[in-house]
Structures are given as structure tokens and as C-alpha cells.
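Example 9 (inverse folding). The structure is encoded as follows.
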């Protein structure tokens, strides 16, 4: 029986589409919907790998995979010497963290799952790159102040200006206290705003 006929009889495309809903990563979804992801000769091995994964999931419930990303485009840009976005940099960092978590998780259980262990060997932690990214990006996905000397200098200057602006607005609140509806200020479109009463608008500049 030809493989295409077997695939049609077993409704493989429908099964793959349902499996897609159980994946936690975009790479997993791409791998599942790829019709060439498995060859007839690989069926026995894949079946045994699935058995091991089922035993692992039954025992541990889940792997420490919070998500993964399709980094092909970003890696291609890096190979060309092009600049990548902050979002792409964060995605790389998150995937490296996930890889390290998986390697830490499986380090003590490899003998029990030899077929899966062979797959885990393909995971490269890239520790120097991960550590470098940790000096650049915060856990919240923003750029560290010390990522560069210029950035540190600019942010220090902005921090000083913010302090001067806050001092100024506090002085204005004290000066026009009787003309305000309440002793507070808000931010609107990047500007400090004082709640001047309607009857006092003409006497308070700005």
C-alpha cells in the first residue's frame, strides 16, 4: 500500500491538525503540520519515542517549556550581519532559558528515557550567549542600563531631568494650592497636569 493512500485512510492530516492544538510552541506547530516530518521507515522509532514521552508526561506532568519561537528569520539576519529587533533578541533569550531549563530537568532522568535522551543531546545551551544577553536584557524584556556606556549616560540624564521636573511640579502645587481642586498631579500625553479649579484658571498660567 502506498504511503499517500495509507495517510488518506488513517486521516493523518486531521490527526495532525488536532495534535497542533496540544503544542506549546510555534516550532512544534510547524513541525506537526509538515507532511514530510516523518518517513515510513521512521515509524517504529517514532512510536517508541512517543511511548517514552507518554511515560515521562505521566510521571512529571509536563516539561518546563513555557514557549518557543521561530528564530529562522532572526538567525538569518544575524548571519548577514544585519540588525535584529528588540523583540527578536528577547525571543532568543527566552529560548536559551527554556533550553537550559529542559537540560537541567532531564539531567537526572536520561537513563530512564534513552530515546528521548538522544533528542535532548541536540539542545545546545549556548551559555556564553545566554549570560551575555542577561547583562543586556532584564527579566521583564527591557534593556539594562549598563548595556552600553551611552545608554547609561542618557538614562542618568533623563533620571536627573525627571527629578527636576518633579521638584518643579511640587513647587507649583505648593504655590497654587488654593487654586487646585485637590493636591495632586497627573500625567497626560507625557505632560504634568495640575487640577486647577474652573474659577482659578485665569490666575494660574500654563
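The amino acid assigned to each position is listed next.
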Amino acid at each position: 500500500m502506498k504511503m499517500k493512500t495509507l495517510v488518506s485512510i488513517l486521516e493523518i492530516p486531521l490527526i495532525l491538525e488536532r495534535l497542533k492544538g496540544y503544542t506549546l510552541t510555534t516550532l512544534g506547530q510547524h513541525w506537526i503540520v509538515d507532511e514530510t516530518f516523518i518517513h515510513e521507515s521512521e515509524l517504529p522509532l517514532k512510536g517508541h519515542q512517543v511511548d517514552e514521552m507518554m511515560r515521562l508526561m505521566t510521571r512529571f506532568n509536563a516539561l518546563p517549556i513555557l514557549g518557543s519561537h521561530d528564530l529562522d528569520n532572526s538567525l538569518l539576519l544575524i548571519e548577514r550581519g544585519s540588525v535584529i529587533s528588540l523583540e527578536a533578541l528577547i525571543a532568543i533569550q527566552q529560548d536559551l532559558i527554556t533550553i537550559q531549563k529542559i537540560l537541567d530537568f532531564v539531567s537526572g532522568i536520561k537513563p530512564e528515557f534513552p530515546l528521548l535522551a538522544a533528542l535532548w543531546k541536540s539542545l545546545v545551551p549556548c551559555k556564553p550567549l545566554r549570560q551575555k544577553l542577561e547583562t543586556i536584557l532584564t527579566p521583564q524584556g527591557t534593556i539594562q542600563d549598563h548595556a552600553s556606556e551611552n545608554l547609561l549616560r542618557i538614562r542618568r540624564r533623563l533620571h536627573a531631568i525627571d527629578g527636576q521636573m518633579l521638584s518643579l511640579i511640587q513647587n507649583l502645587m505648593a504655590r497654587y494650592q488654593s487654586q487646585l481642586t485637590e493636591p495632586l498631579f497627573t500625567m497626560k500625553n507625557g505632560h504634568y497636569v495640575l487640577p486647577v479649579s474652573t474659577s482659578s484658571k485665569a490666575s494660574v498660567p500654563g
